[in-house]
């Protein structure tokens, strides 16, 4: 067991590496595990389980983590289990786990599944930290919201926060419903920006540039803008925008077009749709 610093967590400055098993080896598990191993987490202390061998082979070959096609192996391997299957199959997956599931601690990344519902699925008042990460975790640029009930152990909080901090920033929220806001603002939002990028790429190509050049222009501009947002924490986003916008110039023309199309309302509606869907899932899963 190696002792490592957990950085500026609100709960502790120390975390002892422990075995952690991820059930479900899809996009998010891959993103988080890749980030963790890249950040130095011992690969042999991480396990992923999945029904299909293919995804496991990729993770094992690339990273050297432990893998299994049987979820029971996850419970044999670790005291802390990350629930990383699709919300709709979580109940069946939990029901099929052996009895030792009731003695484990859980970190859930599932959207729209409450702590109380997870406890119900596992048929025991298990400890759960509910989290909402995002795919940029794969490159260490993740953003994860975390929520735990008051009676959740400090150890589990530290563990969850430590893992997610290895792959980006973390933010604890006070109320469970705030996790749904995290979904709208950070869990789902990379997709909004990719959609913005797709539309910009398409128009750039229509204007005559090659696909490769269009992708470079758009990706570098978005990455640069994102970095400026992060590196100027005391500057309003609106000020950064206005710094690009010369009076009577080209950006002003583009921004006016966005205003005419009510872009802010379109974005607000989309984020509300994400929150509404999360709440709906929470009521039905
Ligand atoms: N994709 C995203 O950006 C984010 C997803 N999430 C949440 O993460 C969870 C996983 O999402 P993704 O990784 O995108 O999905 P995914 O579909 O890529 O991964 C799920 C994996 O679970 C496996 N699986 C299916 N049945 C299983 C079983 N019985 N036992 C073990 N594994 C099983 C599937 O084969 C698949 O590899 C979901 O609950 C989602 O709400 C959370 C934040 C962001
Ligand atoms: O689309 C979803 O439901 C998940 C949660 C956040 C990102 N992907």
From TrEMBL:
One of its GO terms (molecular function) is pyrroline-5-carboxylate reductase activity. GO terms for biological process: L-proline biosynthetic process. Its main location: cytoplasm. Pathway: Amino-acid biosynthesis; L-proline biosynthesis; L-proline from L-glutamate 5-semialdehyde: step 1/1. Residues 20-112 form the Pyrroline-5-carboxylate reductase catalytic N-terminal domain. SUPFAM superfamilies: 6-phosphogluconate dehydrogenase C-terminal domain-like, NAD(P)-binding Rossmann-fold domains. The keyword Transferase does not apply. It is found in: Cytoplasm. It catalyses: L-proline + NADP(+) = (S)-1-pyrroline-5-carboxylate + NADPH + 2 H(+); L-proline + NAD(+) = (S)-1-pyrroline-5-carboxylate + NADH + 2 H(+). Residues 176-281 form the Pyrroline-5-carboxylate reductase dimerisation domain. InterPro entries: 6-PGluconate_DH-like_C_sf, NAD(P)-bd_dom_sf, P5C_Rdtase_cat_N, P5CR_dimer, Pyrroline-COOH_reductase. NADPH binds at residue 71. It is an enzyme of class 1 (oxidoreductase). NADP(+) binds at residues 23-28, 84-87. Its EC number is 1.5.1.2. Keywords: Amino-acid biosynthesis, Cytoplasm, NADP, Oxidoreductase, Proline biosynthesis. GO terms for cellular component: cytoplasm. It comes from the Bacteria. The keyword NADP applies. Catalyzes the reduction of 1-pyrroline-5-carboxylate (PCA) to L-proline. Belongs to the pyrroline-5-carboxylate reductase family. This is Pyrroline-5-carboxylate reductase. The gene is proC.
């Amino acid at each position: 067991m190696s002792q490592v610093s957990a950085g500026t967590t609100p709960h502790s400055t120390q975390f002892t590496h422990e075995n952690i098993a991820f059930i479900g080896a899809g996009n998010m598990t891959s993103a988080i595990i890749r980030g963790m191993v890249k950040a130095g987490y011992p690969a042999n202390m991480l396990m992923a389980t999945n029904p299909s061998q293919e995804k496991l082979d990729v993770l094992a070959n690339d990273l050297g983590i432990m893998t299994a096609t049987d979820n029971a192996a996850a419970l044999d391997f670790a005291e802390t289990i990350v629930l990383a299957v699709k919300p709709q199959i979580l109940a069946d997956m939990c029901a099929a786990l052996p009895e030792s599931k009731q003695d484990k601690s859980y970190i859930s990344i599932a959207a729209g599944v409450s702590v109380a519902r997870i406890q119900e699925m596992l048929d025991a008042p298990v400890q759960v930290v509910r989290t909402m990460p995002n795919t940029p975790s794969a490159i260490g640029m993740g953003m994860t919201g975390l929520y735990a009930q008051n009676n959740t152990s400090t150890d589990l909080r530290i563990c969850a926060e430590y893992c997610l901090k290895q792959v980006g920033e973390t933010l604890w929220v006070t109320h469970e419903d705030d996790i749904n806001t995290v979904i709208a603002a950070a869990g789902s939002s990379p997709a909004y920006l990719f959609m913005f990028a797709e539309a910009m790429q398409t128009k750039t190509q229509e204007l005559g540039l090659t696909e490769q050049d269009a992708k470079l222009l758009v990706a570098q501009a978005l990455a640069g803008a994102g970095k400026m947002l992060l590196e100027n924490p005391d500057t309003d986003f609106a000020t950064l925008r206005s710094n690009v916008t010369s009076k009577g110039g080209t950006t002003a023309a583009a921004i006016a077009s966005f205003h005419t199309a009510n872009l802010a309302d379109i974005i607000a509606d989309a984020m509300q749709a994400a929150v509404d869907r999360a709440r709906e899932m929470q009521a039905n899963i």
